[in-house]
Every structure is written in structure tokens, then in C-alpha cells.
Amino acid sequence: MMTNEELIQRAASVIAPRKTRNGLFADVGCALLSVENKVYLGVCAASGSNVLCAEQNAIGSMITDSVYRIAKIVAVWKDDQGAVHVISPCGNCRQMMFEMDKQNLQAEIILDHDRTATLEALLPYHDWWKKQG
Ligand SMILES: [Zn+2]
Q1: What is the CATH number of domain 4-122?
Q2: 65, 72, 86, 93 — which has fewest CB within 10 A?
Q3: What's the gap in Å between 36 CA and the centre of ligand 1?
């Protein structure tokens, strides 16, 4: 099993920011480890009205392999000095990971080299359907 530190480094390794008139690409990198122990990488792509998160690109590569279960995932951003910052997944990505496979609720979201939270902890009302009246 890859360590958090190794996955943080893999995520940082794909960051290569490219700015265009209306876009910013590859300033966030993601590394995810599938339950089959394979690493998938991705970068963000933001252009005009479209924003693809780094997590979504890594997940896209994973599901292209017909794999849907995540063991660990991390996204990172680098500041102007090149320091790496771990960032937590946005709401869309959290919900997508859950809806891809309910067992992803036990996926470990890497928050630091020595800290993780389960997806379930980050998405406490994921299954809320309360009929009214
Ligand atoms: Zn996202």
C-alpha cells in the first residue's frame, strides 16, 4: 500500500500550470489509489464555464479501466514558492465518489502525510431522502 506521502508526491508531480485568456489548467494535481492498488493521476482543467477538478480527471482514468473503488485519494496545489498544499475535495467530487460506488464511503481522503478522513466523514448527509407531508 502506498503511503500518504508517496501519493502526495505523485499528485504534486503532475502540476504544470498553464494559463490562457479564459482558462487555468493543471495547477492542481490528484493521485488516487484504487482498491486494486493502482495509482491514477489527474490535473484540474478550468476554462470559461467548465471546471474539471483534478479528482474528476483521475477518476475518469480509473473508470476508463472499469474500476470504481477508491482506497485513497489526495489533491494538492503548489503556491508561488513551490510549497505543496493538500486540499480537500469539493462537494461535487465527494458526491460523485459516493455515487460511483457506495463502498467509497470508506475511501481515505488524505488531508496530510499523517492524517486522513473517510469520505463518509466528509459527506455526513449523503443518503438523506426525507419524505415531506
Ligand atoms: Zn471537485
Answers
A1: 3.40.140.10
A2: 65
A3: 23
| pLDDT tens column, 25-41 | 999 999 999 999 999 99
User: Which strand (E) or helix (H) includes residue 115?
Assistant: strand 115-118
40 burial class (0-12, 13-18, 19+ CB within 10 angstroms)?
buried
DSSP 18-45: EE-SSEEEEEEEEEEEETTS-EEEEEEE
Residue 89 C-alpha to ligand 1 middle, in angstroms? 5
Residue ranges of domains in the chain: 4-122
In the DSSP assignment, the letter for residue 46 is E
